[in-house]
Amino acid sequence: MDLLAQPAVRVFAFWYLILVLKMLMLIFRTSATRMRLSTFASPEDYGAVGASPAGDGGPDERIERLRRALLNDLESILPFFGVGLLYALSGPSLGMARLLIGGFALARVAHTIFYLRGLQPHRSVAFVIATTFLVWMLVLTLWSVL
């Protein structure tokens, strides 16, 4: 059976790949910021470029904000992978799959933008919206397997 032939699974696959792309962009941006600022994660990283930690060697807030945004993604998108996939496989209507899966993904993209720009309460609102869609998928999926 070709899973990608199922419309809801295709919706999930599309949005999940968009979220992975977003996470990769955060990873690359964090790395580029570290290189630009010559602020590395580990002592051996400084040695690899023939440098030593500057100043107090403490974390740079620009890098830490990027890292926190990525950590938040891991905490939300990892559960979405399992819940969203099982939800898509449960045979939901295409409209509902688009609403819940696409809504979750768009809220996560918005959350990252708001996080990087330091915008509250926008960041919290985006988090609540994404979490609501995730819980909704979880409940519907649990209901379908009972």
Would you mind describing this structure in some detail?
This protein is mainly alpha-helical. It has a single domain, classed as Membrane associated eicosanoid/glutathione metabolism-like domain (Four Helix Bundle (Hemerythrin (Met), subunit A)), CATH 1.20.120. It is elongated and about 55 Å long. It starts with 6 loop residues before the first helix and ends with a helix. The mean pLDDT is 92.
CATH architecture: Up-down Bundle
The number of distinct structural domains comes to 1
Oligomer: single chain
CATH-level-4 superfamily name: Membrane associated eicosanoid/glutathione metabolism-like domain
The outline comes out as: elongated
Distance between the termini: 23 Å
Strand residue content: under 5%
DSSP strand tally: 0
**Radius of gyration (Å):** 19 Å
Q: Mean pLDDT, rounded to whole units? A: 92
- SS class: mainly alpha
